[in-house]
């Protein structure tokens, strides 16, 4: 869709969620402070229980229930907004700075070659025990007096916790999130970003900032995730759509070594032993020629 002069770009916020209704409500609550309000907020969850309190947190939010799985839920959101030009995907535990959407709109209107924008993550709880909502808000408040943001930077992939997609090329070329990547959809952001890279630029936008809480509730088990750590990168690389096998193996080996090194004394918030078991199961299936990303969901 091409904007007519003076016509506002339609931006929809999409959130796929499962098992974290209380955190989702806090994330939705904070969206009310965006200086550029979304034209619509759409939330997709596997069950009504997953979205308790959402309607009260952000009046007017569109709530959908659909099949479980991040990629399926995100595709359902895209299908539900056929007139949107941008879908801004936030994780249900991502707190966006008040100027986030404003920065995305300003950039996307002026740069029609940009197909994916990902913001600057000020703190990422996924790398540790996770951050509380109050901690995330405090980090955003502390950065309110920061210096002006720098110029956009070219990046290999968007980061799925905060990733804006221009829908025109996706519709024109039949692109969507790969639903063969089950559950948490490990590396789904890389897969779609690399396919979209054939039609434009993928950029990190420093002026779009936020905090990823990295809440541990609702995530896949260690064994399932460990399997996906091996199966998903190799599956994506095998497509031959811009994700080199060398990069896939670097990613796999880095995770494998980390799981091995920490299996004896794992962090209390990460199932390292489960991940290592999942890694080994994937390698066993790879040798037997029966490894598929879908198998993670059956473990």
Account of the protein in words:
The protein is an alpha/beta fold and 299 residues long. The protein has 2 domains: 11-212, Spore Coat Polysaccharide Biosynthesis Protein SpsA, Chain A (Alpha-Beta Complex), CATH 3.90.550.10; 222-298, no CATH class. It has helices spanning 21-31, 54-57, 70-79, 100-110, 133-142, 167-172, 188-196, 222-238, 245-262, 272-288; strands at 11-16, 40-45, 62-65, 86-90, 94-96, 114-124, 153-154, 162-166, 201-212. Strands 1, 2, 3, 4, 5, 6, 7, 8 and 9 form a 9-stranded mixed sheet that branches. 47% of the residues are buried. Residues 1-5 have low confidence and may be disordered. This is Glycosyltransferase. Belongs to the glycosyltransferase 2 family.
Radius of gyration equals 19 Å
General form: globular
Helix content: 25-40%
Q: What's the number of extended β-strand segments?
A: 9
- The overall average pLDDT, rounded, is 93
Can you write the helix and strand succession as a string? Answer: EHEHEHEEHEHEEHHEHHH
Strand fraction equals 15-25%
Organism: Gluconacetobacter asukensis
Protein name: Glycosyltransferase
GO molecular function: glycosyltransferase activity
Domain Glycosyltransferase 2-like: 14-121
